[in-house]
Amino acid sequence: MKRFLLFFAALVLCAGAYAQTCKVTLRAPEGVSVRVYEGFGDSLFVGEPVSAAKHGANVDYTYDLKPGRHHFISSGEGYYTLHKNFIAAEGKQVDANPGLLGNRGYEPKKVFAHTDETAANALDITELAKKYPGVLAVPSLKAGKPAQEYTTQQELEDFLVFRDGRRDNMYLFFNAGHTTRGLVMPLAVFTTTDIKGLPLEEAAAAVRANGKPTIYLHAHIHGNEPSAGDGALAMVAELDGKYGKQVLPYVNVIILPRVNGDGAKAWTRGTSRFPDMNRDNLLVDNPEIKAAHHIYNLFLPEIVMDMHEYGAWRNVTRTRGFLDDAGITVSGNQNNTAELNDLMKEMMRYVESEGAKVGLRYWEYTQGGYSDQAPLHASHYYALRSSTNFLVETPNASLDKGQTHPRRVMTQFFAAKALIDYAIANKDRLQATVKADREATVRKGLEGSDPIVLKHGQNEEAYKYSRKFFDFRRGEVLTDSIFSVRYYEVRQIERKRPTAYVIPKDVRYADLILDVMRYNCIQWSELPKNATMNLRGYLPGDPDAKPVLNVLGEEKTVTFPAGAYIFSMAQPSGIVLSMLMEPDFVMTDSFPISLVQAKLLTADQVYRCEKPL
Predict the structure, then answer these.
(1) H-type helices in 190-271, by residue range?
(2) What is the pLDDT of residues 132-163, one digit of tens each?
(3) Could you tell me which of 508, 504, 516, 612 has the C-alpha nearest to residue 573?
(4) According to the model, what pLDDT value does residue 366 have?
(5) Most Cβ neighbours (<10 Å): which of 100, 152, 323, 420?
(6) DSSP characters for 399-452?
(7) DSSP notation for 353-398
(8) What is the per-residue pLDDT across 28-54, written as a single tens digit (0 to 9) for each?
(9) What are 311's strand-pairing partners?
(10) Helix (H) or strand (E) holding 351
(11) How far is CA 28 from each of CA 137, 212, 416, rounded to the nearest angstrom?
């Protein structure tokens, strides 16, 4: 009997321990509702608080909660909606103030936040920022701004004007371009070459003539990816200080900090005119992309860094997972030389290793997430122009600004810094490899040698590397996980390279087509009326094939009553030209690549010359 009583008492104690709760208080402004959930996520509502007491302009909501993981949502009229995780413990007080909306644009309405412990242990950059103070100098981080409001257009312009007045090596151009709605797209040029008072075209020529490598930071093409643009502004601040003194004797840096000013204000990925301008880099239909391409065409940089952010809010609903600071990738397009592709990978892994030294976590995106080589994207397009081309994406999609934005800005800045430092240390190889790739494109176009790759396949062998796996309760590393990535570097579908493409002068959209060619830096010549050439055309292919490809017709004599335009492949933009002119260039994106896919031409209006011109 005694044994039974002891056993029963033990059961009661265990049950009591299991059912133990703790008192937690969440404080929010009066008029803000608070809902608390068990676990990280909003699927298990815990019910109403046991008490609610006024505390000045706030209300303290007290709950009896199981110790451990919880989540709250706080919201109210005129406030953001805040989703935040917290760890319940006896006597804990949680700030549930979602913050007042700024109502000026440049902000998400809903935000997601990790636990305070994760922010302190895994997201803090206090020590690193002491070395690079420009990172915390960006307008979005100044005191007094609404909690989730990022850099406004006026703040962007004021920041650049202020910086332009501080050093002789910064030159600011407000005439580099305008958005769809007329906002200016300021361009900052950092160089020791004196270009004061020169128009942009002459300034670019002078910069090119100084013989130094040029780095182009191209940021914020998606309006709701603000840390990309602020990372570019952080580089402006650092180049305007000690770091600029160190590096500008050896490199030029051009910075377009905000491609999509309209989307930044509206907090949208695209604009009212176009859903995603990062799918416009071949057809160049939007004024913002025309400006970005015009800048590239003037400066012809050796390095282009395309600065983005990716959706990461779902991490907040998980207990554990990756807590990366940025994804990074490069093109492996087989229409480029192997030397350029190898150099880009080496540079990418240099960024990763340099970041690891200071505690920043970069991981390698696969192009698979961006379809087959994604020539429409700025992260891949400029490689087709023979620049080394990098995509850097920090996690965003409405993560809490206070918790994550400083680190996101630092991560963008540091990736750019690593590329600049690499360019200085490897100047000769970088410039020689870029030059050789451009020359190879011209030579192959002149000879009609080396087939054009119409579709890439994934490598069979994956590249493996270490990636840290975190506990999201306290932001502690659980393990180093082995992660693998397979690049699209297999020449899957090819077609003979022509020496030129020819279209009739009297096609319906001739003027628009020539405009596309100009912004892609493609030159052409003209044939007179009633001119003839021996050419091959494109015939319909098997409609049941996957993918459906055109068939090349036999060579025949073609007469052009109104004359014709000839686009030689023997030019540095030859790869881009082939993508525009081959009717059936294959990728998995839903946006058109070629002029035929964009319905500016029909396949029977495109001809190819396969003999020397």
Answers:
(1) 200-209, 226-239, 242-247, 261-266
(2) 999 999 999 999 999 999 999 999 999 999 99
(3) 516
(4) 66
(5) 420
(6) B-HHHHHHHHHHHHHHHHHHHHHHHHHTHHHHHHHHHHHHHHHHHHHHHT-S-E
(7) HHHHHTT--EEEPPGGGG-SS-TTSHHHHHHHTTSEEEEEEEEESS
(8) 999 999 999 999 999 999 999 999 999
(9) 396
(10) helix 338-357
(11) 30, 55, 40
Amino acid in the structure at residue 487: Y
Cis peptide before 213 (omega within 30 of 0): no
Under the banding of pLDDT at 50, 70 and 90, the label for residue 588 is low
Number of other CB atoms surrounding residue 357 within 10 Å:
8
Strand partners, 307: 219, 392
Q: Which of 542, 374, 522, 354 is nearest to 455 (CA)?
A: 374
Structural contact between residues 73 and 43, judged by C-beta atoms closer than 8 angstroms: no
Cα separation of 62 and 526, whole Å?
Answer: 79
Residue with tokens 């960024």: 351
Average pLDDT over every residue of 583-591: 79
- Per-residue confidence band for 570, with pLDDT thresholds at 50, 70 and 90: very high
Q: How far apart are CA 253 and CA 190, in angstroms?
A: 5
* Domains identified in the chain and CATH numbers: 153-419 (3.40.630.10), 498-609 (no CATH)
- Closest of 266, 287, 258, 301 to residue 159, by C-alpha: 258
Cα distance between residue 549 and residue 540, in whole Å = 7
Which residues are CB-contacts of 582 (< 8 A; sequence separation ≥ 6)? 452, 454, 495, 594
| 477-494 average pLDDT score | 90
Q: Could you tell me the two tokens for 499? A: 């020496």
Pairwise CA distance, residues 232 & 217, whole Å? 7
Question: What 3-state class would DSSP assign to 276?
Answer: coil
> 58-65 and 476-485 as β-strands: parallel, antiparallel, unpaired?
unpaired
Q: What is the pLDDT of residues 248-293, one digit of tens each?
A: 999 999 999 999 999 999 999 999 899 999 999 999 999 999 999 9
H/E run at residue 86:
strand 81-88
Q: Which helix (H) or strand (E) holds 519?
A: helix 510-519
**What letter would DSSP give residue 168?**
T
